[in-house]
Amino acid sequence: MSDHEMTFSKMPLDRCSSLRKDKNWLLNQVKSKNSIFIPIWRGNYFFVENKLLQLNYHELELSAENLTRKPFIFLGLEDRLSSQGNYAFFVIDCSEYQEEKLSDLFTKNCQLIEFRKSITLLSAHQAAILSYAKSLSHWHHSNQFCGFCGQPSIADCCGHSRKCTNEACAKETFPRTDPVVIMLVEYQPKNGPAQCLLAQHHHSNYQVVSTLAGFVDPCETLEEAVTREVKEEAGVDVSDVTYIASQPWPFPGSLMIGFFAKAINNEINIDNDELVDAQWFTAQQVRQFDNWGDEGGNIQIPRKESIARYLIEQWLAKQPHI
Ligand SMILES: [Zn+2]
């Protein structure tokens, strides 16, 4: 897998950060015949015969609940063909409806598919747009109340900020991204091939081993976070922390920041609250592992859509075949 194939990272839309502050401009986009509205329900999307459900303004009006009355979140403009002009993308949140009502909501016969499972049905561009929409939608749901005074807040700026309804407070807040460092740690013995540190996490299937990862603490550099997390989780000291790549991760709203690091020692002492196990593996061993979700009892590594897998693949590419 090469860098340009990283899932969720191929955003085709111009986010129009300045233009979207202009209410008249936004209104024109909403009413444009080119505009595309993507309904979201509790982080998941609708599909018609395995194609993403996308509606125009007229179809929203025809929907059972006249969804044009609901607030939209503006995502951005796609410049498809100069002769056709720009296409504005919006996401429209239908999470308030009960699941059994969803089938009546749209005139098209559609199916709700859990987002992670729907990725194989999406183009790289669609995956990026939907991950952006999912993260924004989650931010609104988890920020219904002002964090300063506790009063309700309302969406503003077409979904790109929220404002406290308490006039004495009136705090404005903006969407947040949680930085997470994720790192492939390599140990080079004096003799023999290099090894990488892969761990079995409590939250994943017992067969799956992956890189270490963790949230960045307040007032911590990314390099410090890598060093701290590896020490805390596996008891290993690292040096030479090198940035490799990043990936938006909409589960629910993180940015995964990927590194390589070199182990100073190879003695592992895991934190049992964080990990089930951690081991050093050679490239020859890792190349024999299966993919997460495969049948059989072999050890598995994360799916190709994840940066964990990308880091493993990048490391493997540097290791000689023996
Ligand atoms: Zn407030």
Q: Would you kindly provide a written description of the structure presented here, covering whatever features stand out?
A:
There is one protein chain. With 322 residues, this protein is α+β, with helices and mostly antiparallel strands. It folds into 3 domains: 3-142, Nucleoside Triphosphate Pyrophosphohydrolase, CATH 3.90.79; 144-175, no CATH class; 178-318, Nucleoside Triphosphate Pyrophosphohydrolase. 22% of the residues lie in helices and 31% in strands. The protein contains 8 helices and 17 strands. It has helices spanning 23-31, 57-62, 102-105, 115-118, 124-141, 222-234, 283-286, 307-318; strands spanning 36-41, 44-48, 51-52, 72-81, 85-93, 111-113, 153-156, 161-164, 172-173, 178-187, 195-201, 212-215, 238-249, 254-263, 275-282, 290-291, 300-301. Strands 1, 2, 3, 4, 5 and 6 form a 6-stranded mixed β-sheet that branches. Strands 10, 11, 12, 13, 14 and 15 form a 6-stranded mixed β-sheet that branches. The radius of gyration is 23 Å and the shape is globular. The protein starts with 22 loop residues before the first helix and ends with a helix. The model has no long low-confidence stretch (mean pLDDT 92). Zinc ion (ZN) is lined by residues 146, 148-149, 151, 164, 166, 169, 171.
